[in-house]
Amino acid sequence: MTEMVYGAAPVKAGEPVLPKWWRTVDKWSLSCILVLFGIGLLLGLAASPPLAERNGLDPFHYVQRQVFFGGLALLAMFLTSLASPTLVRRLAVVGFLGAFVALALLPFLGTDFGKGAVRWYSLGFASVQPSEFLKPTFVIVTAWMMAASLEIGGPPGRLWSFALAIAIVLMLALQPDFGQACLVLFGWGVMYFVAGAPMLLLIGMAGAVVFAGTLAYENSEHFARRIDGFLSPEVDPNTQLGFATNAIQEGGFFGVGVGEGQVKWSLPDAHTDFIIAVAAEEYGLILVICIILLYAAIVIRSLTRLMRERDPFIRLAGTGLACMFGVQAMINMGVAVRLLPAKGMTLPFVSYGGSSLIAGGLAVGMLLAFTRTRPQGEIGDILRGRIR
């Protein structure tokens, strides 16, 4: 009867888990993610040997670590995508509590590794950045609160989610990590908009962000230095932005050739924050466009599938994850071409990094879990039924 009413596909009784996963998962998005990871390994082979040489390590030390952490990320993505939305929500709540506590303790137990911002925990053999794990779990928890507020007699979930977002943004700003703070606020704003926020409130929030940015510029030397560098009409050729800009210009359409790039010898973060500069120099605009199209395909495919979703929690959480994923990629590439101030943000699945890779795998796994086709009526079925 349910199938007759909602037009849903029947569930195959006793269908094994893996065949069911393969039948329902978004194969196009999954393929794009795997291609991005492959491109990341290819660029890591070009970008990381100079850094390894400077540190007295094996030439492919960082590539080997990227393969290891990338394997863990893909495993986390696969296992998470197998889970039901309810299980994803429960695990995310537990993960969020742990990441939130870890973020709160950073000023006391964290380290800055000489970069001027206390963002990591040093474990000796590796480092952990709590904010990377906080982002996807925050999206899930926030979506849960907002979805609950849409129910009749539900709690004030949107107000609670706003208070939570402000608390996290303040903790990130104190590190300081304004890039991640903006990303968290953006993710919350997108979900709030989808949940039905009034435009006047969103405009007021935009004004508050501008006001907060002005205060940060006047009171934070770290923030002011990055803004001044971005607004300066001339780029210092000896800065990271200067090296990256020159590399992109040298690359042209087809690049200078595999292994022939020079920016990797000058940039300390060539394998992380400025990996797109290595891609542009050695492989040219062609590869950069391919990378952009891969990210766009993942976001558009995910949002298209989520538009047909009836469950408000799944719709909100998936939208937040997809938009945050795409905007992080946009920010990383925008910094490299001076469209945005320097943020210190990795390129998902392409840049080197343990925390960012594993957290990215969890986030995309959640997104794949939410965008799987399920035996339920889609929102369009209800609308068509009302029209009839």
From TrEMBL:
Its EC number is 2.4.99.28. Pathway: Cell wall biogenesis; peptidoglycan biosynthesis. GO terms for cellular component: cell division site; plasma membrane. It is an enzyme of class 2 (transferase). The chain crosses the membrane at residues 28-47, 67-85, 91-113, 159-178, 190-217, 283-304, 316-337, 349-370. It catalyses: [GlcNAc-(1->4)-Mur2Ac(oyl-L-Ala-gamma-D-Glu-L-Lys-D-Ala-D-Ala)](n)-di-trans,octa-cis-undecaprenyl diphosphate + beta-D-GlcNAc-(1->4)-Mur2Ac(oyl-L-Ala-gamma-D-Glu-L-Lys-D-Ala-D-Ala)-di-trans,octa-cis-undecaprenyl diphosphate = [GlcNAc-(1->4)-Mur2Ac(oyl-L-Ala-gamma-D-Glu-L-Lys-D-Ala-D-Ala)](n+1)-di-trans,octa-cis-undecaprenyl diphosphate + di-trans,octa-cis-undecaprenyl diphosphate + H(+). GO terms for molecular function: lipid-linked peptidoglycan transporter activity; peptidoglycan glycosyltransferase activity. Keywords: Cell cycle, Cell division, Cell membrane, Cell shape, Cell wall biogenesis/degradation, Glycosyltransferase, Membrane, Peptidoglycan synthesis, Transferase, Transmembrane, Transmembrane helix. Its main location: membrane. One of its GO terms (biological process) is cell division. InterPro entries: FtsW, FtsW/RodA. The keyword Transferase applies. It holds the Pfam family FTSW_RODA_SPOVE. It comes from the Bacteria. It is found in: Cell membrane. Belongs to the SEDS family. FtsW subfamily. This is Probable peptidoglycan glycosyltransferase FtsW. It comes from Roseivivax sediminis.
